[in-house]
Design brief:
166 residues, two-stranded parallel sheet, 9 helices, 4% strand, globular
Length: 166
């Protein structure tokens, strides 16, 4: 079980919900050796995977959208697992809907979206898959509120996300 010191959680919470959640996902990444692989997936439980998937989703979409998220190898991790369902259970219904719609696009074009690309081909994918644009805009609009709901869920269910130690 991943252990996090209570004082670190409190300090992060005082800085805001993003920092609060980052304490958990940083601990997960440290346990995983920096990234998720088929070999280390069993080190996290379902709640922890959901929170880590949300971090990858949020970071990647904010930086470069769904195309970047998928090209950086996180498509399968997010779309092939019950991430959307779990986030809905945590109260993030808007993000859940976005993920379900993005999964439809991903599933229909998976081979093309996941293939190795040159920089030019990667850039062209933003035009080829502009159906992601509307979903990204919806996420930017909902992100703060939905992240707050996830943070509240984590705070109310800490034992599912880490063992809190003194």
């Amino acid at each position: 079980m991943i252990q996090i010191q209570e004082k670190i959680i409190i300090e992060a919470a005082e800085k805001g919900m993003d920092e609060f959640l980052k304490v958990f996902t940083d601990a997960y990444l440290e346990t995983l050796g920096g990234d998720i692989t088929a070999e280390n997936m069993d080190k996290l439980n379902g709640y922890q995977h959901t929170l880590l998937a949300y971090r990858f989703f949020s970071d990647e979409v904010n930086e470069g959208g769904f195309v970047q998220l998928i090209q950086n190898g996180y498509g399968g991790y997010i779309f092939d697992n019950p991430t959307a369902k779990a986030l809905k259970m945590m109260g993030a219904k808007g993000v859940s809907k976005i993920l379900y719609k993005a999964k439809e696009i991903f599933d229909a074009h998976r081979a093309e979206l996941e293939r190795e690309t040159t920089d030019e081909e990667f850039t062209a994918m933003y035009v080829d898959f502009e159906q992601f644009d509307e979903l990204e805009e919806k996420f930017f609009y909902l992100e703060e509120e939905e992240t707050a709901l996830i943070a509240q869920y984590v705070d109310e269910n800490l034992e599912d996300f880490a063992k809190i130690v003194q």
